[in-house]
Design brief:
This protein has 453 residues and is α/β, with parallel strands linked by helices. The chain contains 13 helices and 18 strands. The structure holds zinc ion (ZN) (2 copies). Keywords: Acetylation, Endosome, Golgi apparatus, Hydrolase, Lipid degradation, Lipid metabolism, Membrane, Metal-binding, Nucleus, Phospholipid degradation, Phospholipid metabolism, Zinc.
């Protein structure tokens, strides 16, 4: 029974099916004992950024970018296309809307971007032809017949040698965690990375729990432990969340981060997740639609933009796609970082690259991609991850969403091998899209003259 339930949880987390379309599977999912969907209506809090115009990037490499893009403080409420937002839009208080800063768009290029959209039932949908639901027969085959090739060793010695877990530098020497010039990235397993850039410490999709599940006694269990605890982290200024799946929005980690940092930490979430965070006790939550942006109070110079991804959301038996999913573009005066979250390949990465690229670093998923027909809509394979890297105009990328949970059926060490092959085939250097050990850090120089201690 547990094996069946584990498979259900795995599918719930990793598979792109719409359970609501398949009553039998929905029944299985409901066995997970989910809570009722959140219904309370709470306005966003702490929604103001300070009103100082954003500084232009100082890097000389940004000059061309600045020719076609300028950052302004909009006194008038503007949407992603620079036009005025529909005043009927119900999701924001007037105070937060009137204080929003926006990127002035590139009118010369008449840049088009893909907006978020919902179906007639109000559930979010993916607006690209690359989104596919697996058929009922595919799902049955996945559940009952497909062989799981992940073959994660049970031996700790083997795992320690293949996927070592290192103690992060900030545990060994907390004094070093005041970042100097450059951008520093530390992989903390799965899609969790710590990025230190432009004076901010940013955490992505934090999961420090043993299982990606509503329960800690069943559901996908991590085969590599977290390299540190929440208590060992340096100061965290911002957390970005990509979507509601349990391997990306972990209740235990949210509770621990909130207990430690409280309102000093700003949570950035896509539309529909604020109420969940508020119920968890988080006070400083910023909920954004695709192409909307905001910042950490007191740090106006770094802009957080919610950008698209091709995925879906689900946390309970009945809340399919009731909250939005997304990626995050974080744009500072000296560095630009992109976090893809969980995604299939879609046309929006070119849009993001055109509007906000080049990025100094992108965190892009490379795992949980087999069987391809079931997973393709929602999870890229390593070859598609390299395409995203190119679309974004990322100078370097770091691989995420692999080596931690066995959520799909590829061999657990296959993603980095295929990544290296894909880079080679495209004539790209191995270092342009690298993997890290759990807990390992890398410093990224964004411009000449960046010197690291
Ligand atoms: Zn997901
Ligand atoms: Zn995931």
């Amino acid at each position: 029974m547990e094996a069946l339930l584990c498979r259900s949880v795995r599918l719930l987390l990793a598979c792109s099916c719409k359970f609501s379309k398949y009553p039998g599977l929905l029944k299985k999912a409901s066995l997970l004992g989910s809570k009722s969907p959140q219904v309370s209506l709470i306005r966003r809090r702490n929604s103001r950024c300070c009103g100082v115009p954003m500084e232009k990037p100082s890097s000389s490499g940004r000059a061309a970018l600045e020719e076609r893009k300028s950052l302004v403080e909009d006194e008038v409420i503007r949407g992603a296309e620079g036009g005025e937002v529909d005043p009927q839009t119900p999701r924001k208080s007037s105070s937060s809307r009137s204080s929003r800063k926006s990127f002035r768009l590139d009118y010369r290029l008449e840049e088009e971007v893909t907006k978020s959209c919902r179906d007639k039932h109000g559930r979010w949908i993916n607006p690209w032809p690359t989104w596919r639901f697996p058929s009922y027969s595919m799902l049955l085959r996945f559940f009952l017949l497909d062989k799981n090739h992940s073959n994660v060793p049970t031996s700790k010695e083997v795992l320690d040698s293949e996927l070592p877990v290192m103690e992060p530098y900030f545990v060994q020497n907390p004094d070093l965690s005041d970042s100097g010039p450059g951008l520093r990235v530390t992989w903390l397993g799965h899609a969790t990375v710590l990025v230190e850039m432009d004076g901010l410490n940013i955490l992505t999709d934090p999961i420090f729990s043993q299982r990606a599940s509503p329960f800690q006694f069943m559901g996908p269990k991590r085969y590599r432990g977290p390299p540190c605890t929440v208590e060992q982290l340096p100061r965290i200024d911002a957390v970005v969340i990509s979507h509601s799946h349990f391997d990306h929005l972990d209740a235990g980690s949210v509770a621990s981060l909130n207990a430690r940092f409280g309102g000093e930490l700003r949570w950035f979430v896509p539309l529909g997740l604020m109420d969940w965070l508020v119920k968890m006790g988080c006070e400083n939550v910023m909920e954004l639609d695709w192409w909307e942006e905001n910042c950490v109070p007191g740090h106006d110079e770094v802009t957080f933009v919610c950008t698209p991804s091709q995925h879906w959301s689900k946390r309970t038996a009945l809340d399919d796609n009731k909250s939005l999913w997304g990626s995050w573009s974080i744009l500072g005066p000296d560095h630009r970082f992109f976090f893809a979250g969980d995604t299939g390949y879609c046309a929006s990465f070119q849009e993001i690259g055109r509007r906000f690229g080049p990025f100094d670093l992108a965190a892009i998923p490379i795992g949980a991609y087999l069987p391809r027909d079931v997973m393709q809509g929602q999870h890229v394979d390593p070859e598609e991850a390299v395409l995203i890297h190119q679309d974004l105009q990322a100078k370097q990328s770091v691989a995420i969403h692999w080596g931690t949970f066995a959520l799909a059926y590829e061999y657990y060490m296959e993603p980095p091998v295929r990544l290296r092959e894909a880079l080679e085939q495209k004539g790209l250097k191995p270092d342009s899209f690298f993997t890290l050990h759990h807990g390992e850090s890398r410093l990224i120089a964004s411009r000449e003259g960046d010197v690291f201690e």
